[in-house]
Amino acid sequence: TNTTLQSPAGRFYVAGLNYVVDGVDADASAWPMDAVYKKNLLHLVRKESLALYPRLFTNDQTAGSVPLWVEVEDSITSKDGKTLAWMLCTLTLVGTVFPVPMEIDRDMDVSVSPWNGRDGRGSEPVQVNFKREQHMWGSILSPLGLISIPGESDFPKVSEAFNMSRFAYDDAPQVAQQVATAVAKMVITKDSAYWTAPSRWTGSPASPGIIPATALEALPLPTQTVAPF
Question: How many CB atoms within 10 Å of residue 121?
């Protein structure tokens, strides 16, 4: 949290966010939960950016605020080998009696640019990368999985009865805090000219961009009269 962080360009507003998981846009993912995650992430990033940096962000597109387009690319690696080895070493009792450990690594690429007012980016984006390590364990027929997992954590640890419908969304508030911090660190690296430059729309194959009309130059009058045919 930094309540004094600000930019000469003024205050910013997260106008839109796109979430790509393992190279696939969340809206086109085979898992419907990814599209829901994307929608929740936009709401949470707006909320966390204002809470963490109140002088840098605003919660709506007020007059003078700079609209932003945020891209989040999430590459997820599940370390299943450790889980499998633990189960084999305990003769598959893990998960029924002893807690089975699980670990997920996430490589997060976050980029931000001025919103062009139509389809996303208005100029070359600024980009940063950070990594998340998620550690957990669980049991099925034993309450031992509710014991807090050992080790240090950057976020408060959570122990609860397993709920599949909520499992995929529990980390969204944490990710939103990290994305909001990444965006804040990026916007202060650029001067006002970058953020306040007129936005442009580059268009798409399905909807070509608008080509501005050029001013017509007046043709000079002829200096000679036309001779009769």
Answer: 22
**CB-hemisphere CA count at 13 Å for 94?**
17
The one-letter code for the residue type at 186 is M
Q: Which of 53-57, 75-79, 192-196 has the highest mean pLDDT?
A: 53-57
Quick one: pLDDT at residue 206? 38
Q: CA-based angle 87:137:176, to the nearest 5? A: 140
Burial (CB < 10 A; 0-12, 13-18, 19+), residue 114, is buried
User: Which residues are CB-contacts of 222 (< 8 A; sequence separation ≥ 6)?
Assistant: none
Task: Find all residues with CB under 8 Å of 11, minimum gap 6, and list them.
Answer: 55, 56, 57, 58, 62, 64, 65, 66
Task: Encode pLDDT of 31-73 as tens digits.
Answer: 888 888 899 999 999 999 999 999 999 987 777 789 999 999 9
Torsion sign across C-alpha atoms 199, 16, 30, 175: positive
Place of tokens 């599209």: 35
- Count the neighbouring beta carbons within 10 Å of the beta carbon of residue 137: 22
Give the gyration radius of the chain's Cα atoms: 26
